[in-house]
Amino acid sequence: MIADDSADDIGASEPAGAGGGSSSGTQQYPPHFSSLDLDAMRQPGVPCEVAGFGARDAEGSAGMTEFQVGQQFQDKEDALLSVKIYSIRRGVQYKVVESDYRCYVGKCSEFGNGCTWLIRPSLRQRKGIWEVKRYNGPHTCLASSISSDHRSLDYHVISAFIMPMVRADASVSIKVLLNATASHYGFRLTYKRDWMAKQKVVALIYGDWDESYNKLPRWVLGVQVMMPDSIAVLRTNPVRVGGQLDEFKAYFSQTVLDFPTVYRGISSLQAVG
Question: What is the reported pTM?
């Protein structure tokens, strides 16, 4: 059964966030709803990024680590993430000249114009891991001036960084994530990019929204098969476009299950003693 909660006031499509107050205006929220202990978020076994590949130490850029021939990665995604983080830390750009399921080659954007930086990790089929087969580094070009953004700082890199924070508190706001990312990488991102990264992380942790929704009818049917007298109601909310009600669309709101047999059994119980 599908019920349309048309009487509900759904003027905004965005659900109320964790930072919103109660109707009385007196509800107080825990501090972690607006700020996070970033050191505490880096839990053992849940790295926020690949460590040691291009990370700065206390000496600054002079002490920046470099890749090594023979350096190994769990898979291609791990290798690419390391190259991106290295480039972000260095403040340089690179271009991909070859990429397939066996090999990946990246060169400095200034390759042939005063810089010879090149990296070539490839798959070791017997071990199923990726390994740096060739590396020309460090960069001999000057770090480009990237004041506000870095193209390697995509939502894949951001997702790897914010994963521990979202895992610890799924209600963490985009504003908190934006500030944490800017503090860590030195670049201020757009709201949209951090939002997309959080959606990816939420899907990885809790499952894809569409996939979960598609499983719901089968799950409800299974409950009703096992408990024939149970009642299931899928509630929806109306969709408004430009203030006008769209009669052909609806938002899923909630599923309500009723178990009459259970209620009758509980009501028939009598106190003993």
Answer: 0.44
In degrees rounded to 5, what are phi and psi of residue 104?
Answer: -145, 130
Interval 56-77: pLDDT, tens: 333 334 345 888 888 888 888 8
Are the C-beta atoms of residues 117 and 134 closer than 8 Å to each other? Answer: no
* CA–CA distance, 128 with 215 (Å, rounded to integer): 33
Closest CA relative to residue 169, chosen from 75, 81, 70, 38: 38
Phi/psi region, residue 205 (left: phi>0; alpha: psi -120 to 50; beta: rest), is alpha
Residue 188 sits at φ, ψ, to 5 deg, of -90, 120
Mean pLDDT of 163-186: 84
Q: Are 167 and 128 in contact (CB under 8 A)?
A: no
Task: State the maximum Cα–Cα separation within the chain, in Å, rounded to a whole number.
Answer: 92
- pLDDT tens by residue, 113-152: 778 888 899 898 888 889 988 888 787 776 554 555 566 6
Going by C-alpha positions, the residue among 202, 218, 127, 135 that lies closest to residue 169 is 202
| Rounded percentage of the chain residues whose pLDDT exceeds 90 | 0
